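[Automated response] Your request has been received and processed.

Submitted sequence:
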Amino acid sequence: MFPEDIELIVFDADDTLWDCQSHFEDVQRRYYEMLSQYGDAATVASGLFDTERANMELLGYGTKAFTLSLVENAVRVSGGRVSGDVVGEIVRMGKSLLSMSAEPLDGVRDTLERLSSYRMAMFTKGELLEQEGKLRRSGLAGFFEHVEIVSCKTEREHAALCERMGVVPEHVLMVGNSFRSDIAPAVTVGAWAAYIPFHVTWQLEHAEEYDHERIIKLSHIAELPAMLPGARR
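Generated structure:
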């Protein structure tokens, strides 16, 4: 159980409230097929990972950064031979992600309704217009007192969110699927954390997990209300 003095529950968005990474992986599978004449899937994927990692500081997170990395990597692995038609199709696939479904994952809406006695916030990283669009399409905006979209989620951003919300970290519960961005930094600043892994994880979000007295790992978001004394039964 989480403590009775939790005042604010903060939810990550992508792969916590709705599916995101699966859509990106569908695009990547198609991308590997399109570039198969220049290398096998493992080679193209390795190049894409290196390109995304190198671009992270300049481009940040989100579909636009991902699409630019797809194009850059295609030019590199093909030795500049990739056709304009293929580049155009890569751009089209990238743009399609900007209108991906944001249907809430199973159990999300019911969980938010059962936790409505708590102050709740959505705290996500990525590109502003893209994340705003997904929240709007999800129909979940009304549950959140505060929505914050940042370029990264480190200890500094987690601590700043607590300060803006007027709650000390010890009275905050962070709910998310990324141990690297959601769980570890929240616990480091003193918050509690509900870790709910998604079935796929972006390679750049992989991190070594560890046990901690303020982390509870759940298999499904529907388990969360039972862990909070103030939830509606």
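Summary generated for your ticket: Helices lie at 21-34, 41-59, 63-77, 84-96, 108-114, 128-138, 155-165, 179-188. The CA atoms of residues 114 and 233 lie 7 Å apart.
If you did not submit this request, please reply to this message.
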